[in-house]
Amino acid sequence: MPTECLFREDSYLKECAARVVALTQQGGIVLDRTVFYATSGGQPGDTGMLTASNGAQVPIATAVYTDADKTEIAHVPADGAPALRVGDTVTAAIDWDKRHARMRMHTALHLLSAALPYAVTGGSVGDTEGRLDFDIPEAGLDKDEITARLAAMIAADAAVSSRWISDAELDANPGLVKTMSVKPPMGTGRVRLIEIAGLDLQPCGGTHVRSTREIGAVRVTQIEKKGKQNRRVRLAFA
Q1: What structural domains and CATH numbers belong to the chain?
Q2: Cβ atoms < 10 Å from Cβ of 224
Q3: What are the C-alpha distances in Å from 205 to residues 5, 90, 105, 133?
Q4: Secondary structure of the chain: what % helix, strand, coil (to 5)?
């Protein structure tokens, strides 16, 4: 059953009321709606708490998609958590500090992909650091130079917004896709775009801040050679 993914329209929602609609064989809890981001696109699933109407609290260790089309989300309870039943009503609340840090880092990585206009072959979003892998035939990347480019983009306080286009529109504009290893979330007939005003536009299902200034200071901590044409660029909050 498709989950109403509230985080796609508002990354700043911290909690919501929901109802348990299914339990997976692996013990996952499927809700009719959720604020929990599910693991995808290099960004980990949210942690948090489900609180039932009787007061029982179920710590959530992560959230994952149950299907290839990424329409249904299962909330994975921590070991030893009390059981819920189909039909139970709950309040779903995320660990906001961890989510917000990932929002800041994810947006910073979009800026990194704009600062280094090469095909992206992989990436990871963390709470304190993140990375992108680039298909770059020549080396010569400079950590301080890239850090300075990112600082200028962040200081510009550019607005970050999302909008939807159809699958057909994306097919007609393949240049929007920067990632070689991760396909944009498709299959529902529409694709979500993240735009950083004047700086970047690409498909993304992740959570982001509202403006670049909210990212705060970041720095390039390491540039690694991972293959003949692969360079891994690591970011951390300064």
Answers
A1: 4-94 (2.40.30.130), 98-237 (3.30.980.10)
A2: 11
A3: 10, 25, 14, 19
A4: 20, 40, 40
Q: How far apart are CA 52 and CA 69, in angstroms?
A: 29
Q: Which of 15, 29, 16 is nearest to 75 (CA)?
A: 29
Name the DSSP class of 116. S
Residue 49 · residue 59 · CB < 8 Å: yes
The structure's pTM equals 0.92
Q: What is the pLDDT of residues 174-232, one digit of tens each?
A: 776 776 555 555 556 788 899 999 999 999 999 999 999 999 999 999 999 888 888 99
Sign of CA dihedral 196, 198, 200, 203: positive
Backbone angles phi, psi at 109, to 5 degrees: -70, -30
